[in-house]
Design a protein that fits this description.
The complex is a heterodimer of chains A (362) and B (282). Chain A is α+β, with helices and mostly antiparallel strands. Helix content of chain A is 26%, strand content 31%. Chain A folds into two domains: 233 residues, Rossmann fold; 110 residues, OB fold (Dihydrolipoamide Acetyltransferase, E2P) (Beta Barrel), CATH 2.40.50. Chain A has a six-stranded mixed sheet with strand order 6-7-8-3-9-10, with helices on both faces. Chain A has a five-stranded antiparallel sheet with strand order 15-19-16-17-18, with no helix packed on it. Chain B contains eleven helices and no strands. At the A-B interface, strand 6 and helix 2 of A face helix 7 and helix 8 of B.
């Protein structure tokens, strides 16, 4: 068990190109489940591979358990990795796959067998599967064998690189909770890479959001959702995504949908200090409430997505034609073409600087 | 109007005719290639007197007398061929595996130059090299020695084997090698425990192709050996007497010499297909 630390860790693939990972600073606590999330090209996988020792660092350092491992070969870092395509040895049986690392460490055969069996039991892998080859297993079973191979080693840190991306949707949701539960039981520090923000939010104790090789924000899922530090995090976290609209600033607030949206004083002050004439406002779909009466945003329903419990309304606002998505209760759903009015609480409006993307105090 | 659903339309007819004419072309070409072989095998079963008739006779009383003659004199040639072929193939594979590894999985500096060098050795006409080879062999006292053939066949097949095995190694998924590195496998373990099992079908087909080339090699054997290391192709030449009829005898010898190669070729074809369609991981 150990904590993990990135200190200004950088990786540049080719001279003259922007760094894949740019001065990453990240503290991962002992026993923590840390998720690295971001769109493709954000550097999340590179960051993981730097920790694994599969990718050299071009600056900074990586520490595992207070030991600088920047120049330590992968096998001596006491880590285990679960790969996206599982990377099971095709000619070895399941048991041989899981025990290979122990064999390399010259662990006696009896001890090895015991640990393989224990890990198999932990993952609900039947004993008879242990003698099969990976080719004879289903996708879900292969995924569990890959997990088992990591567990058997009893490493200081688990590294997982999109381990669920090859499973079908239903199995993915199921395995997601199993992995989170297993991690909690084993208490082993885990770094988990995914591009799926739902996976990140549901699994991670904390989530580090990366974009363009830079760390945007690292916080608990709740904090990321309620207090995104910038426009990127606000738009990336949450499904359906936050409505982000560039609007002109007026005296009392921001001009939108044929009305003036009141903004908190702190936001107006911050916008004034930055000398902005317009700003980006962000409203989560569930914060757009259907309402009757005036003094609210008005618009026309274009499309209705029924989700069962909820419905998503795609609405074109009255002036300017901005598109927003509102989440309503399924039974109160509207139909396309209907005129609707929407209410927003001022506290539910996020404001961002359109130039820098940074959050304006509020 | 009565419906006639089973009657093919004009479009369908044209399609069928097109397919049939291609089929005929394929058969004609195939037969053109096969006929000489058929003629050789048939002639091998004829008595010498019936061999050289024109047009060739297809109805005759088969005899094994020529085969008996062939088998009686073939022994040493067969032994030499087997030793040179198997020996050189083993050495080729032993050398080609680490060489391919250094040119693919963990490429050394200037690996491109290395790769080009290997293939460039095949560009020199072998006739141009035979003089120096003869002199070198003479001075090393290796003329008419089976060791010389093993060395030369190894040199002859090594570039091809490296190119083939290298392409198989490139197919091994990178994740698999990274998993092995994380599991603590060193270079040797990585090759023997992870790469070789995955590429084994490719390895087999490479070895079989080396066997075929070494088995059929004539030019080097003819110029550098006499009796102590003479191989099967030389036996075929020696089956041609100075005078008299020899077609049936030659056919019998050629048939015997071809059997192992045809067998190996057949096996190689199957494993080559398997080797080339190696999609190991998913």
């Amino acid at each position: 068990m150990a904590d993990v630390k990135y200190v200004s860790a950088s990786r540049v693939y080719a001279k003259g190109t922007p760094p894949a990972v740019d001065a990453l600073d990240l503290d991962i606590k002992d026993g923590e489940f840390m998720v690295l999330v971001g769109p493709s090209g954000s550097g999340k996988t590179t960051a993981l591979r730097m920790l694994a020792g599969l990718e050299p660092l071009d600056g900074g350092r990586v520490e595992i358990g207070a030991r600088d491992v920047t120049f330590v070969p992968p096998k001596d870092r006491d880590i285990a990795m679960v790969f996206q395509n599982y990377a099971l040895y095709p000619q070895k049986t399941v048991a041989e796959n899981m025990g290979f690392a122990l064999k390399m460490q010259h662990v006696p055969r009896a001890d090895r067998d015991r640990r393989v069996r224990e890990a198999a039991r932990l993952l609900d892998l039947d004993d008879q599967l242990l003698d099969r080859k990976p080719k004879q297993l289903s996708g879900g079973q292969r995924q569990r064998v890959a997990m088992g191979r990591a567990i058997v080693r009893e490493p200081k840190v688990f590294l997982m690189d999109e381990p669920l991306s090859n499973l079908d949707a239903k199995l993915r949701v199921q395995t997601r909770s199993q992995i989170a539960e297993l991690q909690r039981r084993l208490g082993i520090t885990t770094v988990y890479v995914t591009h799926d923000q739902v996976e990140a939010m549901t699994m991670g104790h904390r989530v580090a959001v990366l974009a363009g090789g830079r760390l945007q924000q690292c916080d608990t899922p709740r904090q990321l959702y309620d207090n995104p530090v910038n426009q990127f995090v606000a738009g990336f976290i949450g499904s359906p995504a936050m409505n982000l609209l560039t609007v002109p600033i007026t005296d009392g607030g921001a001009r939108l949908g044929g009305t003036t949206l009141p903004l908190p004083a702190a936001v107006r002050t911050a916008a004034g200090q930055a000398g902005l004439s317009e700003l980006v406002i962000g409203i989560r779909p569930e914060h757009l409430h259907l309402a009757a009466g005036s003094g609210a945003l008005s618009g026309e329903v274009l499309l209705v997505e029924e989700l069962g419990a909820d419905a998503l309304l795609h609405i074109r606002l009255a002036d300017g034609g901005s598109l927003v998505v509102a989440r309503t209760e399924g039974r109160q759903s509207r139909s396309p073409g209907e005129k609707v009015t929407l209410l927003v609480q001022p506290d539910d409006v996020f404001a961002f600087n359109p130039g820098t993307g940074g959050r304006l105090a509020g | 109007m009565t419906a006639a659903p089973l009657q093919p339309g004009p479009h369908r007819l044209r399609e069928m005719a097109g397919r049939m004419s291609w089929g005929i072309v394929a058969w004609v070409v195939g037969l053109a290639f096969f006929l000489p072989v058929l003629w050789m095998v048939l002639t091998a079963f004829k008595p010498e007197s019936a061999a050289e008739t024109w047009p060739p006779q297809f109805i005759f009383t088969p005899t094994l007398s020529e085969f008996r003659l062939v088998f009686s004199g073939m022994g040493p040639f067969l032994t030499h061929s087997v030793i040179a072929t198997v020996g050189s193939t083993i050495v080729v594979v032993l050398l080609a595996v680490p060489a391919s590894y250094a040119l693919s999985v963990h490429p050394v500096k200037h690996w491109r130059d290395g790769l080009f060098f290997f293939i460039s050795t095949k560009m020199l006409p072998i006739v141009a090299a035979i003089g120096p080879l003869y002199v070198i062999a003479l001075h090393l006292h290796l003329l008419d020695s089976i060791w010389l053939l093993i060395i030369l066949y190894t040199a002859m097949n090594l570039p091809l084997a490296i190119w083939m095995i290298r392409s198989f190694m490139l197919e091994v998924p990178g994740e698999l090698l990274e998993a092995a590195r994380l599991d603590g496998a060193g270079r040797i373990r990585e090759i023997t425990g992870v790469i070789l099992p995955v590429i084994s079908p490719g390895l087999v087909s490479t070895a079989l192709i080396c066997v075929i080339f070494a088995w059929n090699e004539l030019f080097l054997a003819l110029n550098l050996t006499v009796t102590n290391a003479a191989t099967m192709p030389m036996f075929l030449i020696s089956s041609v007497p100075q005078e008299g009829l020899y077609i049936a005898h030659l056919s019998a010898a050629a048939t015997v010499a071809s059997v192992p190669v045809i067998l190996v070729g057949w096996i190689a074809q199957r494993s080559l297909v398997r080797g080339l369609s190696m999609g190991a991981i998913k």
